[in-house]
Every structure is written in C-alpha cells, then in structure tokens.
Design goal:
Chain A has helices at about 1-10, 15-30, 40-50, 75-80, 100-115, 125-130, 135-150, 160, 165-180, 195-215, 230-240, 260-270, and strands at about 30-35, 65-70, 85-90, 120-125, 150-155, 180-185, 220, 255. With about 280 residues, chain A is an alpha/beta fold. Chain A has one domain (about 1-280): TIM Barrel (Alpha-Beta Barrel), CATH 3.20.20. Chain A has an eight-stranded parallel beta sheet. In chain A, helix 1 crosses helix 10 (about 195-215) and helix 10 runs parallel beside helix 11 (about 230-240). In chain B, about 55% of the residues are buried. Chain B has about 500 residues and is of the alpha/beta class. The longest helix of chain B has 22 residues, at about 145-165. Chain B has two domains: about 55-290 and about 490-510, Aldehyde Dehydrogenase, Chain A, domain 1; about 295-475, Aldehyde Dehydrogenase, Chain A, domain 2 (3-Layer(aba) Sandwich). In chain B, the strands form five sheets. In chain B, strands 14-15-16-13-12-17-18 form a seven-stranded mixed beta sheet, sandwiched between helices. Helices cover about 35% and strands about 15% of the residues of chain B. Classes of the chains: A alpha/beta (about 280), B alpha/beta (about 500).
C-alpha cells in the first residue's frame, strides 16, 4: 500500500495559484547542495549567490533554505551567507560512508559547527545497523546530537542501502529518539536516493513520533528529485500526511541542486505564461 | 550486542532541552487546514455531446420506446437534468428478446470463436480510444469522482473486454475434455455503482461464449450504457447481438419474466435478487446473482498499521462506499484500537469531497436522493442505538446529494449498522481479542461476498482466510480487481462467479 499511496500523490493536479504558491514554497525549502571532491571556494560562491537570490526580484521568489557543503568549505559559505537568511548546512561524520571512528566523526562535527555551520547532516553507520547493532547506531546519533550544540541535526539514513521499509522505519525511530531534528533519506551518492514511498514511510514514522511525544521532527528527501512536478507531489504528500504545520522550511527540506532551475522555469512560466530557454536561468 | 530487532520503545527519547525549532509541545493534533490549498483542477467536459433524448437500443438501432414514456436522468452532483431516457415496457422487452434470439440463431452462435473474438477486441480498443470521454460521462451521470472513473473504471472496462476476447476462440481449452456450448439469450440486469464496468462484466463473457444479450442498466445510470451501444455500432457488431433496454424495476421484471430467455444474470440488492430467484424458479432459465455484502476488514495488532489504514480507507470510501464488496465492518484488535481510530480520524479529514469532475476530489456525490435517504436512515439508527459517529468536517456543496466520510465506534454485532448494508461512506468499527473471535465475528453475517485481512505474519493470513466464508478475501490490500480473477459470493451475497475462466461458466453448457 505504501507504493500505491505514494503514487496517488503524483496524480494530485496542482494548478494555477496552487502551483505558483507551491513552487515558491519548494524554493524556500531547498537545501542547495554541492558535495563533490572537486568543490572549491569559487564553486561555493556560485552556489551561495544563487541560494540567496534564485531569480530576478520581480518574480518574488524567496531564498533557498540552506546551502549544503563539505565541512572544509563551511567557513567560505558562511562568509557569503552571513548576512542573509540562508543557513549553512554541512555534511559531517565521514560522509558519505560514515565508517570513521566515532571520535573522529565527532571532531569533524564540532569543527563544522565552530566554522559556522547552522545545520549538520550526519550519516548513520549502515554497516552497524544492518549487523543489528542498533544501540551503537543510537549512541552515535545521540553523541553527534550533543556535539552539534545549537546546530540542528539532520540524520541521513541512506535508505538505498537499508533497502526494506521495515529497516527504514526502524532507522527513523532510532534517529528520532536519539535526538534528530530532521531525518533525511539519502546522501545522493547511492542509487536509489529519495523515492516517494520511502519518504512516505518516513513521514509516517514522524507522525507516530508526534502522536507519541508531541515533538515535530523535520523531513528531508535528498537526491533524485529533479523536476518541479515531482517536488509538488512531495509537497502534496507532506500536506496530506502530516498536515499544514509541516509546510515550512523549518520542518521540510529538499536536498537538491538541479531541481532549482526546473522549479524556477515553471515559476516564470506560471507568472509570464510562456516558457523561457534554460539559457536564461543562471547555473548554481 | 543483541541481534534481536528492537522494539522502538526500547530507545528512550533523548532530552532535547525543550522543543526543537522553538515550538512548544502542546497539542498532538495534526492540522489539515487551508495552508497551500489546491486550486480547482476541473476535467474538461465542454466537448461532451449529450443527446436530449436517449432511445432504446434494439436490433442494432436506436428506437423510441413503445410506450412513448421517458424519464429524466440527472447529475447527482448538481441535480441538473442531463437527458431523457426511454422507458422500456413489455413490448420493447419482447422486441429485444426476439432480436437477440434471431441474432443468436442466425449469426452469433454460428460464428467461429475467432471471429467473435475479433469483435470483442475491436470493442475493447474503441473503449480505450474513447476512455476519457466515457469516464467524464460516467462521472457526470453517476456522481463518482473523475479520478476513479478515469483510473479504475474505464481501464478495467477495456481490460475485461480484452480478457474475454482472448477466451472466445479457446473455449475448448478452458474446460479440457468437455464441449462448451452457448446457452442462448441472456437477460442481464446491472446496478448503478459501476455502470460501464458492470456492463462489461456481463457482456464480455456472454459474448465470448457465443450468447446474445439483452442488457438493462440501472435507472439512474443509463447514459453510458447507451454510449456503449454507439461503440457496438461502430464496431459493426451484428444487429441484435446486444440490445440495451433502459427503464426502472418494471423493465427488469419484464425481462426476467420473458419466456424466451435462457439465462438471467443480476447484480444488485439482495432483496431484488431474492425476487428474481423466485421468479426464475421452475423455469429453464439459468441464474447467477451477485448481491449485497457486509464485508469484514480485520486488522491484527501485528499489521503495518499505516498501510492497513490506507486499506480501510480504500475499502469503505472507494466510490462513496457504493461498492458491494466494501469493507464496511472493521474489526480491530483491541490492543491497537485507539491508535487505529486516531489515524482513521486524521485520514478522513484529508479526504476531499466535492465536484466529482475536479481531479483532486476523493469523495464524489451519492448516486441518488433515495440512496442518500437510505444512508441517513441507517446512520440515524446507529446513533439511536448508541454508537458514536465520527465524521469528516468536509463542507458539503449546497446542491446535489452528499454524505461526508464517516465511521461509527462503539458498534456491536447487534447494531443495525453492523448487520445491514449501508452502501455509503459509513464504516462500522468493532473490536476483537483473538483470531478465533475475529473469524467468528467476521462470519456472523448473512452475507459473504468479500473480506480483508491485515497482518505482517504470513502464516496467520493462510490460517484466517481459509476459515472466512467470503468469495473474495484480500490480504494486506483491498478492493483490487482484475479481469482474470473470479469474483462472487457465498450465502445471501449470491452465487456464480464473474471474471476469470470461472466467469465463462455461467454462460456455457458443458457436455
């Protein structure tokens, strides 16, 4: 039923005013991401500028939620974003495999926070999870939570490696109980990354946790969402699973980069009533 | 290190020094409100050409009814008149049966199966080509949502014709070692809940088997059957092979009582089914009945609860609950009762009720005022007998026939709402403690059409389903249909099977 239910959201017909409002919301929820070995300060400059002002002001497009980079570039990103509303997010904890000793991972987290990261995207240790060592997975998340201090913690489950919905569901429970502010599907380095059924299962876990504790945990599907149409289907899924309270960048994010320009293209079309060539949209 | 899969509650919630994002921990209610509400997304219907008057379809032609009487067909979502429909009387029935008899004798029974199959394939393809138009018509005439008529009804209609087209030239393989002969003229009476789909369920196997048909659609949903007649003309189906007579109960009764009918197939209420059974008793007419239901949907504590909730929703609110196999009795294991109810409550508040032509509408209009009255009467009885009603707060349109998605808790087996078929978006929730109790309660009904079981434990599924007295049992899903899968009931839900190889049997004499 999870696949069936998820597919139902792709058939929601989001038109006219709802489309325009939805697309603006999607932009405001975007963690504009670059996680390449080849990332340089120059590349980060492009990304930050784009995140702060995705489109000409007359389209009234909000800035993105955050820019997500490797820890070594946090300081650079912070310099660009300091006086904007855009947050600096950093992957840490030996991204993407998460296989370094915990002590080193925590040191990496503390360093990123010290350099100015507002949000830490950690990866869980999938090897330990699949080996059944759930307490160690829990403890590591809890320790990372502590190392984050005031920074928000997003916990990447890497659902493509967990494979079953049962595993995803259990990993969600562990992450939420251990102190995650957000749970996140994927690193983007493994295929499949975010899918709608997996995101739905995670949203349902968030819902149960809210019922139980009253605490609202955020959700971040990442990787693989490339079109505005898909993004709107995700929004419909959030709205109809968790309700209006989650329709905010405080509780829902998209981890993406190529998605942004497709959303902007649809936005311009919705405002001007005609499509523009991709050449008119600056690359992040 | 323990390798056992932990229960989530083994992990204590880490102290967060208050609430993340500075939100207070207060109410634990989800808010399904108006933020980012979907704009109207109406399916276009301006191109639909409705006739002012629809005539009877006899011997390949549209002819006026002998009585000269017509009745109005209205759109239940707006109460606007769509068209006038001819009302067939005994004389029209006689003409139609005679036409069917001639076509049977001279053409259809002599035709090779391969040729009959070609016609059925052609009909199936034409239905596919006109699927969207037919879906819009189905929605306008019957009140069901465009989402369902487009994604469920019409694809299944075409699939049914395709499936039985394939059997037309393979009857000798269907029942090895036995010779299959058609019965002759079949009188077929169908209900208003799935007008085209029920027509397909009736016509396709009858035609594949070499029979000719006189079909009577339900009074409130005649229009799409007559558009189907137009498709039969376009497919150049020989005259008289299918005749379609519109009218109310008297038309059906005239058809049932016509002396030259070999077979009656009826889908509808148990009450009418019983009358048909006594009318055909002692005649040569073979009979199949697909009648009412009061299906049990059983949710065990080890089920995937969120998935089960989706199954409950699909089970009872699909097509406004106008489904004979609707999962209208929900049995929840006591240990998970409050959790399931909370989720159900939240889920029904996300169901969008309104214009059935809006692509985002989940709950359409009730098919007729009479049906709405019946639903209201039964809900009143539930309240009077002390059950608690939970209803979505969906705003009901001012015009048309509407009922919000609802469920009763505090229901026991002696409540009328637990016994009688409501045929509307109203669920009766009851509890059980052990599998044995669940089986006993599920079987405690005069009906036996369908049931659902939800558990993650495979062995439990097999144990339970073998003891449920129901024609169709779904495990960890609900309301799934496929032309290759037989459908039909036990006890007062009728007899005979439709769909699959079994669906050929009621239309064949084996020797």
């Amino acid at each position: 039923m999870a696949e069936e239910r998820a597919a139902a959201f792709t058939r929601r017909s989001i038109k006219t005013s709802a489309k325009l409002e939805g697309l603006r919301l999607v932009v405001s929820m975007m963690d504009l991401t670059t996680l390449e070995g080849s990332d340089t300060p120059g590349k980060i400059a492009f990304l930050c500028r784009k995140a702060m002002q995705p489109l000409d002001p007359r389209y009234q497009v909000p800035s993105c939620a955050a820019v997500c980079v490797y820890p070594n570039l946090v300081r650079i990103a912070k310099k660009f974003l300091e006086h904007s509303s855009v947050k600096v997010a950093s992957v840490a904890t030996a991204f993407p495999a998460g296989l370094m000793p915990t002590k080193l991972k925590l040191r990496e987290v503390r360093g990123a926070v010290r350099d100015g990261a507002n949000e830490i995207d950690m990866v869980i240790n999938r090897a330990r999870f699949l080996a059944g060592e759930y307490e160690r997975v829990f403890d590591e998340i809890a320790a990372t939570r502590e190392a984050c201090g005031v920074a928000h913690l997003k916990v990447i489950l890497e659902t493509g490696e967990l494979q079953t919905y049962d595993n995803v569901r259990l990993a969600c429970e562990i992450a939420m109980r251990a102190g995650a502010d957000f749970i996140k599907t994927s690193t983007g380095k493994i295929s499949p990354a975010a899918t709608m059924p997996v995101t739905l299962v995670m949203l349902e876990a968030i819902r149960d946790y809210f019922y139980e504790t009253g605490i609202r945990i955020g959700m971040k599907p990442a990787g693989g969402i490339r079109t505005a149409k898909e993004a709107l289907a995700y929004l419909a899924m959030v709205k109809e699973t968790l309700g209006d309270d989650w329709l905010t960048p405080d509780l829902f994010r998209f981890g993406a980069s190529t998605l942004l320009n497709d959303v902007l293209m649809q936005l311009v079309k919705a405002v001007d009533a005609n499509y523009q060539s991709a050449d008119y949209f600056s690359l992040p | 290190m323990s390798r056992r899969r932990p229960n989530s509650s083994q992990f204590a919630v880490v102290d967060r020094n208050g609430e993340p994002n500075g939100r207070p921990i207060a109410k634990r209610r989800l808010d399904f409100g108006e933020r980012w509400s979907y704009a109207p997304a109406l399916e276009a219907n301006s191109y639909i050409k409705l006739r002012n008057r629809y005539q009877l379809f006899i011997n390949g032609r549209f002819v006026p009814p002998k009585s000269g009487d017509y009745f109005d067909s209205i759109n239940p979502a707006t109460e606007e008149k769509l068209a006038e429909i001819g009302s067939a009387n005994e004389k029209d029935v006689d003409l139609a049966v005679k036409a069917a008899r001639r076509a049977y004798k001279n053409v259809w029974s002599k035709m090779r199966g391969r040729e009959r199959g070609k016609y059925l394939f052609r009909i199936a393809r034409l239905i596919q080509e006109k699927a969207r138009e037919l879906a819009v018509l189905e929605t306008m005439d019957g009140g069901k949502t465009i989402k369902e008529s487009r994604d469920i009804d019409l694809p299944l209609v075409a699939a049914h014709f395709f499936y039985y087209a394939g059997w037309a030239d393979k009857l000798e393989y269907a029942f090895p070692g036995r010779k299959a002969q058609p019965l002759g003229v079949a009188g077929q009476i169908i209900p208003w809940n799935f007008p085209l789909l029920m027509a397909a369920w009736k016509l396709a196997p009858a035609l594949a088997g070499g029979n000719t048909c006189v079909l009577k659609p339900a009074e409130t949903t005649s229009i799409t059957a007559l558009h189907l007649a137009q498709i039969l003309q376009e497919a150049e189906l020989p005259d008289g092979v299918v005749n379609i007579l519109t009218g109310a109960g008297e038309t059906g009764s005239a058809l049932v009582n016509h002396a030259d009918i070999d077979k009656i197939a009826f889908t509808g209420s148990t009450e009418v089914g019983k009358r048909i059974a006594s009318a055909t008793a002692g005649t040569k007419k073979k009979l199949t009945l697909e009648l009412g239901g009061k299906a049990a949907n059983i949710i065990f504590e080890d089920a995937a609860i969120d998935q089960a909730v989706e199954g409950i929703i699909a089970g009872i609110y699909f097509n406004q609950g106008h489904v004979c196999c609707a999962g209208s009795r929900l049995f929840v294991q006591e240990s998970i009762f409050s959790n399931v109810i909370r989720k159900l409550r939240d889920r029904i508040s996300t169901l969008r009720l309104g214009n059935p032509l809006d692509k985002n509408t989940d709950i359409g209009a009730i098919n007729s005022r009479a049906q709405l009255d019946k639903i209201c009467e039964l809900v009143d009885s539930g309240l009077k007998q002390g059950a608690q009603l939970v209803q979505s707060r969906a705003r009901l349109p001012a015009k048309g026939f509407w009922y919000p998605p609802s469920f009763f808790t505090g229901v026991t087996a002696s409540h009328r709402v637990a016994q009688e078929e409501i045929f509307g978006p109203v669920l009766s929730v009851m509890t059980f403690r052990t599998p044995e109790e669940a089986i006993a309660r599920a079987n405690n009904t005069p009906y036996g059409l369908s049931a659902g079981v939800w558990t993650d434990k495979g062995s439990k599924i097999f144990k339970i389903v073998s003891q449920l007295r129901a024609g169709v049992v779904w495990a960890n899903t609900y309301n799934k249909f496929d032309p290759s899968s037989p459908f039909g009931g036990y006890k007062e839900s009728g007899f005979g099977r439709e769909g699959g190889r079994h669906g050929l049997l009621p239309y064949l004499a084996l020797s």
